[in-house]
Amino acid sequence: MQRRPCGLALIALFVVLLAVRQPTTDIRINLHDAGDPTPRQIIAAVDTGLMAVSVLVTWSRRIAQ
């Protein structure tokens, strides 16, 4: 009977850890013209389990030439 409160505390801690969101970084570099209907883009994402990084880079074809 004495182990029951300890087990309940561990289960509660586990539920709280599942509810906490992992830190996420979202980086957007917009180099395209506002009037460009189809800008070029590169999307990359890395998720290590402890944190996540997402990168979006857009550019216009006219800027690249």
Description of the molecule:
This protein has about 60 residues and is of the alpha+beta class. The model has no long low-confidence stretch (mean pLDDT about 85). The protein has a 3-stranded mixed sheet with strand order 1-3-2. Helix content is about 30%, strand content about 35%.
Tell me the overall shape: rod-shaped
Please give the largest β-sheet. 3 strands, mixed
What is the count of helical runs?
Answer: 2
Order of helices and strands: HEEEH
Distance between the termini: 75 Å
Strand content: 35-45%
If you average the pLDDT, what whole number results?
83
Strand order of the largest sheet: 1-3-2
Structural class: alpha+beta
Number of strands: 3
Radius of gyration (CA) equals 22 Å
Q: Could you list the spans in which at least 5 consecutive residues all have pLDDT below 50?
A: none
The helicity comes to 25-40%
What is the topological layout?
Layout: H1 3-19, E1 24-31, E2 40-47, E3 52-59, H2 61-64
Parallel strand pairs: 1-3
Antiparallel strand pairs: 2-3
Short description:
The protein is an alpha+beta fold and about 60 residues long. Helices cover about 30% and strands about 35% of the residues. The protein has helices at about 5-20, 60-65, and strands spanning about 25-30, 40-45, 50-60.
Tag the structure with descriptive keywords.
65 residues, alpha+beta, three-stranded mixed beta sheet, 2 helices, 32% helix
